[in-house]
Amino acid sequence: MKRLSILIPTYNGISTTLVRSLQQQAAKLATDYEIIVADDGSTDPATIAVNRAVNELPSCRYIERKENAGRAAIRNFLATQAQYEWLLFIDSDMVVCNDNFLQRYAETDGADVVDGGVVIGNVMPGNLRSMYEKAAEHEHTVDQRQRHPYHDFHTANFMIRRELMLAHPFDQRFRHYGYEDVLLGKELAAHQIAILHIDNPLSFEVFETNADFVSKTEEGLRTLCQFRHELQGYSRLLDAPIVRKESLLQSFVCLFHRIVGPWERRRLTGPHPSLLIFKAYKLGYYLTYLKTNNKPS
Length: 297
Hints:
Elements: E1 4-10, H1 16-26, E2 33-40, H2 45-51, E3 60-65, H3 71-81, E4 86-90, E5 94-95, H4 101-107, E6 113-115, E7 118-120, H5 128-136, H6 142-147, E8 157-161, H7 162-167, H8 180-190, E9 195-197, E10 202-204, H9 210-226, H10 236-239, H11 241-244, H12 248-269, H13 275-292
């Protein structure tokens, strides 16, 4: 049975409930384990104080970092802190939703990278993030993920050999939200490192406000624009014909976004968001940002 280092990056989020659930399961395994939470320079003292309780749990450690290094760097840091040969990365906002979660990973055989997947625990009426994730859930079943193992690789819940992670770390240019996992999937594909997708999900149940999600989406679109050449072929937006080739239609979309975008944003951040408007807003925002910041990445 695999010896596991369970690694949880966090930023201004409480991780104690997740860690307790994992520790209770890990204690029942006939193998060595550790759980490490790394705080990436959180700014909320109350959250940090609550998370310090992780240090009181058996085989658990909470590392406080004063500087925010970014989403890629904090995961690479966690890999260097781990002592066991298998690393299980889990996002801090995940919820353990089955009693055999760790057992399934510990007994998995035949691959150096294993992606367990995510399910959406609930839909909050009027919450854009929960609506968006639930609408896309059918695209991320284990069968769908296995059809496109590298394109559908996400880092909210995956296991990898430590030596492999150290040899192929996350690209630390990705300091802001979005796409560091996509580029890692592309890196694994380039080196023909197989990814096994299994049905061993965690549940996503806590969603940010509409305003926070729209801001995060905008940040992700700026990241996508910055790394658009590296991410070509790994993003549906980048692969869309209207994005691939400059045209009058692009100019029309940008003009439409400048005029209607503020109204779309107000609708999306209000109590009655629309997924159709969200899709249009993302396209308009990306193309407008691209034309305004059209510099080589």
